[in-house]
Write a structure and sequence with these properties.
With about 280 residues, the protein is an alpha/beta fold. It is about 40% helix and about 15% strand. It contains twelve helices and eight strands. Strands 1-2-3-4-5-6-7-8 form an eight-stranded parallel beta barrel, surrounded by five helices. The structure holds phosphoenolpyruvate (PEP).
């Protein structure tokens, strides 16, 4: 069922999530290997989320390359006695443009609740960051036929906290938990079905904003499956874990995002416009 009656207004977005990997020297080598390939790429927006201690290093390395900096997490608090936490304002101060919120590893390993994720989403917006809201079901929830219900309740928590107008300032990443870091990817059809469901939930709030919102897919995206995933109508890019640590693989995924773009003249605004 078509969920978008207009083409996505803007290039695809590909976000690298380095998770807890990297060293000062290794990061420099990875960016060095990536830049020649990525700097020639108009037609895709790229962001890199390194571990927090390396944000300053990456801000320096990415400089004016056009590649954005993002954080893997954000505190829901603005300031104060919260040992170990990093506020949105600090992330913005470091040069971040994006912050992941509610990654399934944060939800499952660190007990982040829907309510906390909603507060993090709001905190990111307050700091002028674009929150990337991660949603996804476990394999048990999928097998029980509860995928749409799980996604719906994760989304509802944020909608109730911030409302549709604010939610639409963010990005949503559908990341089936069973596909993250497992090598098992959702098929393009499975991914599209959930993306279409998410867009329909958003459209019930505001159809125009829903059509504009970027919905990323994440979960074992690799160079050889990216093109098919990105070709789906409601998939506007990817959140890439493991493969983002390999310069060639990540560059190939970004290239796949460009080739999946509708042809010029299909109703898109100018290249590299942001939403
Ligand atoms: C992720 O960490 O968000 C992710 C999608 O990881 P991977 O690509 O390794 O499955």
């Amino acid at each position: 069922m078509p969920t978008r009656n207009t083409p996505a207004p803007g290039p695809k977005l590909v976000i690298a999530n380095w998770k807890m990997h990297g060293t000062h020297a290794g990061n420099a080598r990875l960016i060095d290997a990536l830049l020649p390939g990525l700097s020639a790429m108009a037609g895709v927006q790229v962001a890199i989320c390194p571990p927090m201690p390396y944000l300053a290093q990456l801000a320096g390395l990415l400089g004016r390359t056009g590649i954005c900096l993002g954080a893997q997490n954000i505190s829901e608090r603005a300031e104060g006695a919260f040992t170990g936490e990093v506020s949105g304002q600090m992330l913005a101060d470091m040069g971040c443009g994006y912050a992941l919120v509610g990654h399934s590893e944060r939800r499952s390993l660190y007990g982040e609740t829907d309510a906390q994720v909603a507060m993090k989403f709001e905190a990111a917006l307050r700091a002028g960051l674009t929150p990337v809201l991660c949603l996804g079901e476990t394999i048990h929830q999928r097998r029980a036929g509860n995928t749409n219900a799980v996604i719906g309740s994760q989304l509802k928590a944020v909608l109730e906290q911030v409302g549709m107008a604010q939610l639409a300032k963010g990005v949503i990443a559908y990341e089936p938990v069973w596909a993250i870091g497992t090598g098992e990817t959702a098929s393009p059809t499975q991914a599209q079905a959930v993306h279409a469901h998410i867009r329909q939930l958003l459209a019930a709030q505001d159809p125009a904003a829903a059509a504009r919102m970027r919905l990323l897919y994440g979960g074992s995206v690799k160079a050889d499956n990216a093109a098919q995933l990105f070709a789906q109508q409601d998939i506007d890019g990817g959140l890439i874990g493991g493969a983002s640590l390999d310069a060639d693989a990540f560059a190939a995924i970004c290239r796949a995002a460009i080739s999946a773009e509708p042809p010029v003249g299909a109703g898109l605004p100018a290249k590299n416009s942001t939403r």
